[in-house]
Each structure stands twice: as structure tokens, then as C-alpha cells.
């Protein structure tokens, strides 16, 4: 599981996928999410605007990411 730090309390799923370098653009994130290829906390998620918080887990294929709020 890879930890991905965010600087705010929440982040949109599409923004998180870009931050984690899963996709290179928002449009790539959009289609990946709409195609049902993203899970949040073991549930398929099709909403790009889903708010993620510290402790949420995001899975794309075999990759698993943990959302962590930066201490800074």
C-alpha cells in the first residue's frame, strides 16, 4: 500500500488520482472512474467529485493507495 499525502482535510477523487500519478489528466481520471475501475474503501466509486479523507483507501487495479493528511 502506497501512502499519498494531501495538504487539506479532503481531496476530490479525480484530483487524488492525478496526485498519486495514476493518471496524467483530469479527463483520464474521469474515464477511469466512470468505467468502474476505481474502488474507495472496497466499494466501486463512479463519482469524480467523491471527497476523500485521511484513512480512505483507493484501489486502481493492483495498486492500493492510502490517503494521509500531511503533518505540515
Detailed description of the structure:
With about 70 residues, the protein is of the alpha+beta class. It contains two helices and seven strands; from the N terminus they run ββααβββββ. It has one domain: RNA-binding S4 domain (Structural Genomics Hypothetical 15.5 Kd Protein In mrcA-pckA Intergenic Region, Chain A, Roll). A hairpin with a 2-residue loop joins strand 6 (about 55-60) and strand 7. The protein is globular and about 35 Å long.
List the keywords.
globular, 22% helix, alpha+beta, 72 residues, two-stranded antiparallel ribbon, Structural Genomics Hypothetical 15.5 Kd Protein In mrcA-pckA Intergenic Region, Chain A, five-stranded mixed beta sheet
The CA-CA distance between the termini, in Å, is 22 Å
CATH topology: Structural Genomics Hypothetical 15.5 Kd Protein In mrcA-pckA Intergenic Region, Chain A
CATH architecture term: Roll
Specify the structural class. alpha+beta
Beta-strand portion reads 35-45%
Question: In CATH, what is the homologous superfamily?
Answer: RNA-binding S4 domain
The shape is globular
Query: Would you state the CATH class?
Result: Alpha Beta
Note the main sheet. Answer: 5 strands, mixed
Strand order, main sheet: write it out: 1-7-6-3-4
**Low-confidence parts:** none
Radius of gyration: 11 Å
- Helix percent reads 10-25%
Topology:
Blueprint: E1 2-6, E2 10-12, H1 13-19, H2 26-34, E3 38-40, E4 43-44, E5 51-53, E6 57-60, E7 63-69
Parallel strand pairs: 1-7
Antiparallel strand pairs: 2-5, 3-4, 3-6, 6-7
